[in-house]
Design a protein that fits this description.
Blueprint (H helix, E strand, L loop, with lengths): L1 E2 L2 E2 L13 E5 L1 H4 L2 H4 L5 H16 L7 H17 L5 E4 L2 E6 L8 E7 L15 E4 L4 E4 L7 H16 L7 E5 L3 E6 H9 L2 H11 L8 H15 L3 E8 L4 H5 L10 H6 L2 H4 L13 H11 L1 E6 L2 E6 L10 H11 L16 H37 L20 H11 L9 H4 L17 H5 L11 E3 L17 E3 H10 L12
Parallel strand pairs: 3-11, 6-9
Antiparallel strand pairs: 1-2, 3-8, 4-5, 5-6, 7-8, 9-10, 10-11, 12-13, 14-15
Helix pairs in contact: 3-4, 5-6, 5-8, 7-8, 13-14
Length: 506
């Protein structure tokens, strides 16, 4: 009913006007615990710092809300979204992030952006706060949330949820560039979309059946009194970028760890609730692509399927593990020793590729297993030391100890496959801290016995560095040029942390 020009909403308690019970989460508290353990790489954090600094530096108090909305859009696109998610306005919505690459995909995030000087229309987060020391959460008992930006989010959400039947909205955001209020859409669904009285008023408003059709009427006469009537807890995440100016502006890389939670909070993994790599069984896309490059393979698409194939003719590098193996198999006529060559293909070309691929996979599996072992040895022994300094004596996958493919072959079969007292004298000292592994992985395979061992590969071969390489030069830029394959493989693996159990660091 209408009373005093304000629409009022009855509820079961008949408390028509109560202050909101507000629960504010700090960014770290809002993130999935498993996602917290995912380490961002240095390139991602540097890009985040650069783009966030530009966002702050480009604000202008004399410019319009539209100007600042575009700044927010550019920041989000450049940092996270432009490759896979469309960001633009939609109807009256300031900004939306779509779940897909175009405007036809469902809206996943609704953003209401204000200019930094527009504090009147923004919620006020920290008036009369009480901090729960046990949970690190902040409680408010004043109705400071009921500002225009929040009311606008209510209207935009109802349009997506009720009018457009969109069940894929994940978060709603109100920001004036400095302050960010982030709401989980499940809260909006429970408080607003599931309330029959509010939905009826919304439908009547959209159909022009109320006293006015202007959005300000909806905000003042529908949304505001309804929000005032809420008696259940309202939870959201809050942060102010100004609180992060020190790590944002300085050059001390150690301080960058303080920015990780903000980087993750605004990422598609959080805002769009996308799956993320959070265990050692999942491959990092960048790692996977560069490893394929070193092997001599590439990922292609055939319809909806992803296929791993040999590089196309004209794009092959004879120094890659696969191509080197193919050349050695061919020049040494190793296929003639196969008992059943036809099981590897119908033509000589197919057989060369399939045998070389099986050998390459065997060798890479061993090396990746050893990299994990090496990392765990170093981590375990470092944790036992009192000095706190890293003990690299347990490292064995490097050019100091393995200078060529012959040495790598010796590591497989003369070191790891034998107990220490059974090892040859020439490897005992170099690998005195490398354990014996009672594993079939370090027994020669049948196909190795009749074709090639890794020691047959050529040490002087080089390959071009991957265009999106993780390797950096002394200036911190991506490495260019060609590099010996074994050196490339070791430096590439060293660029990743195989010993990490996850943590809030880069």
């Amino acid at each position: 009913m209408i009373n005093g020009n304000r629409l009022r909403f009855a509820n079961t308690n008949e408390n028509l006007f109560m202050s909101e019970q507000i629960r504010i989460l700090k960014p770290r508290k809002a993130l999935n615990k498993a996602f917290l353990k995912v380490k961002p790489n240095r390139t991602e954090i540097e890009s985040f710092k650069t783009n966030l600094s530009q966002l702050l530096d480009r604000t202008n108090d004399t410019e319009s809300e539209e100007f600042h909305k575009n700044l927010v859009s550019d920041f989000l696109k450049d940092t996270y979204y432009k490759q896979n998610h469309f960001i633009n306005t939609k109807g009256r919505n300031d900004l939306v992030i779509h779940n897909g690459l175009n405007a036809n995909s469902k809206v996943g995030v609704i953003i209401e952006a204000k200019k930094p000087t527009n504090k009147a229309e923004m919620p006020q987060a920290f008036a009369n706060t009480k901090i729960n020391k046990q949970t690190d959460e902040q409680m408010i008992t004043t109705k400071k949330l009921n500002a225009k930006a929040f009311q606008e989010l209510v209207l935009y959400y109802l349009r997506e949820r009720i009018t457009h039947k969109n069940l894929e909205v994940k978060h709603l955001v109100a920001t004036n560039i400095n302050e960010w209020f982030i709401f989980d859409a499940t809260l909006f669904d429970r408080l607003f979309a599931q309330n029959k009285n509010l939905v009826k008023q919304f439908n009547d408003f959209e159909a022009g059946r109320l006293a006015d059709t202007k959005t300000d009427f909806f905000y003042k006469q529908v949304a505001e009194p309804f929000i005032d009537s809420i008696t259940s807890e309202i939870e959201f995440t809050y942060f102010n970028i100004q609180d992060f100016q020190k790590p944002l502006r300085n050059t001390d890389k150690a301080d960058d760890n303080l920015l990780i939670v903000l980087f993750k909070l605004l990422s598609p993994e959080h805002l769009l609730k996308l799956p993320f790599t959070n265990d050692s069984n999942s491959l990092d896309k960048r790692f996977y692509s560069e490893l394929l490059h070193i092997i001599g393979l590439t990922e292609t698409k055939e319809g909806s399927k992803k296929l791993i194939e040999r590089n196309k003719a004209g794009e092959r590098n004879t120094g890659t593990i696969l191509e080197d193996a193919i050349i050695q198999l061919d020049s040494l006529d190793k296929l003639s020793r196969l008992e059943k060559p036809n099981q590897f293909g119908n033509t000589q070309h197919e057989r060369l590729f399939n045998v070389a691929l099986e050998l390459s996979i065997t060798w890479i599996n061993r090396i990746l297993f050893l990299k994990l072992l090496e990392a765990q040895l170093i981590t375990y022994h470092n944790s036992s030391r009192q000095s706190g300094k890293d003990d690299k004596s347990f490292s064995f996958l490097n050019l100091d100890k393995i200078k060529n493919y012959d040495d790598l072959n010796s590591l497989f079969f003369q070191v790891l496959a034998r107990k220490y007292d059974e090892r040859n004298e020439d490897v005992k000292k170099a690998f005195e801290k490398t354990p014996y592994l009672n594993s079939s992985l370090f027994e020669p395979t049948d196909i190795e016995q009749v074709t090639l061992f890794i020691s047959n590969l050529k040490d002087d071969k080089t390959i071009p560095i991957f265009s999106q390489t993780v390797l950096k030069d002394q200036q911190g830029k991506k490495r260019l040029g060609n590099i010996p394959t074994l050196q490339y493989l070791f430096e590439f693996l060293d660029a990743y942390d195989f010993g990490a159990e996850g943590g809030e660091e880069i």
